[in-house]
Amino acid sequence: MISSASPAGPTAFVLGGGGVLGAAEVGMLDALLEAGCRPDLVVGTSVGAINGAAVAANPTAEAIGLLTELWSDLGRSDVFAGGPAKQLATVVQHGYLHSSVPLRRMLRAHLAATFEELPVRFQCVAASIERAAARWFDQGPLVDAVLASCAVPALLPPVKIDDEHYVDGGLIDSTPVGRAVALGARTVYVLHVGRIERPLRPGRWPWEAGLVAFEIARRRGFADAMASLPEGVTVHVLPVGDDSGAPLLGLRYRSASGVRRRIEQARRATTEYLERAGTGVPTGHPYGPTGPPAGASEAGGANSAGGANSAGGADNAAGIAEAAGTTEASGISEPARSAGSNRSAGSNGSGGSGGTR
Predict the structure, then answer these.
(1) CA 127, 249, 344: angle at the middle one, nearest 5?
(2) What b/e readout covers 229-244, taking b as 16+ CB neighbours within 10 angstroms?
(3) Torsion-angle region of 346 (φ positive above 0: left; ψ -120 to 50: alpha; else: beta)
């Protein structure tokens, strides 16, 4: 078991995107908290922003119970209500399938009102349409920021904050390991939905080819961030526990079937991983108990892309907002701001897998 005192340096939970598959993150959170691991920082993208905001508000079994119920009730809620005719009418009139009003209402009922109310530091990212850049939120109204982070294009409308419109943060940084490192984390637990473990193959149909191309872009940033880990940082990529692999496109995004099974599978797999890892990644297994996904490079080893090499020190480890072309990453230290001007790390990916320096 990992005790709360065993990780070296500040501990971060990084929660990636993945739609309804994000239920797996609840099981991972359950295992982490049960093992006594408490975060000093939580960073979330898309659906990971919802899960992350909940655990940052209350890093206890109570939050796990709340998230389990929310996920289990998804199919019965009105968050994605409406039949094909209504959806078609909404698309024709507005350009998206669902109103964000029900989701906003649900978030207001279960999340804190502001970032400042959270006992654990929390940040989430959304993509600015006007600037084609990231904006990291860490202060002010919480629900608007979380809603912006999970506003999947065409599924939900963009969220207007100040004078800009924002969509799903997964377009910018789907698994923001680099952001957590830039904010000072030295032990990072990556909670994901399983896509980074699925081998990619050429698509047979045009839409499959498009999905594969998008997935390559998603994974590239994660792999770059893992290759650029500075000295003293350990990353644990937690297992999903589902050998069937996560689909690249979840068409059944309104279905709650299998949610509790997915949560339990991830909980068991993560519990086993933590018991085997102890206070660090097992020797010889920087990618966790199952090894790297097919095609992943040994980004976390003694690769010259990281460590003391000028290409991968602390100044290069992260997807700061400047790395995506913006200077609006509020609440970050000046050294980390200057680091973000380098574009070689962690902006939009989901692929590689774990490592330690």
Answers:
(1) 40
(2) bbeebbbbbbbbbbee
(3) left
Contacts of 82 (CB under 8 A, 6+ apart): 90, 97, 98
Q: How far apart are CA 356 and CA 235, in angstroms?
A: 6
State how far the Cα of 202 lies from the Cα of 185, in Å rounded to an integer.
Answer: 36
pTM: 0.72
The two beta strands, 187-191 and 164-167, are: unpaired
pLDDT in tens, the chain (357 residues): 343 334 568 999 999 987 778 889 999 999 999 999 999 999 999 999 999 999 999 999 999 999 998 888 765 555 544 444 444 434 434 444 677 888 899 899 999 999 999 999 999 999 999 999 999 999 999 999 999 999 988 788 999 999 999 999 998 998 999 999 999 999 999 998 866 667 777 877 776 777 777 778 778 888 888 999 999 999 999 999 876 554 544 444 444 557 888 899 999 999 999 999 874 433 333 333 333 333 333 333 333 333 333 333 333 333 322 233 332 333 333 333 333 333 333 333 333 334 555
Residue 226 in tokens: 């893992």
Distances (CA, A) of 35 to 5, 139, 194, 260: 11, 30, 22, 20
**Nearest Cα to Cα of residue 229 among 171, 295, 287, 291:** 287
Question: Residues in the chain, how many?
Answer: 357
- Per DSSP bridges, beta strands 121-128 and 133-137 are antiparallel
Which one-letter DSSP state was computed for residue 293?
P
Report how far residue 175's alpha carbon sits from residue 188's, in angstroms, rounded to the nearest whole number. Answer: 12
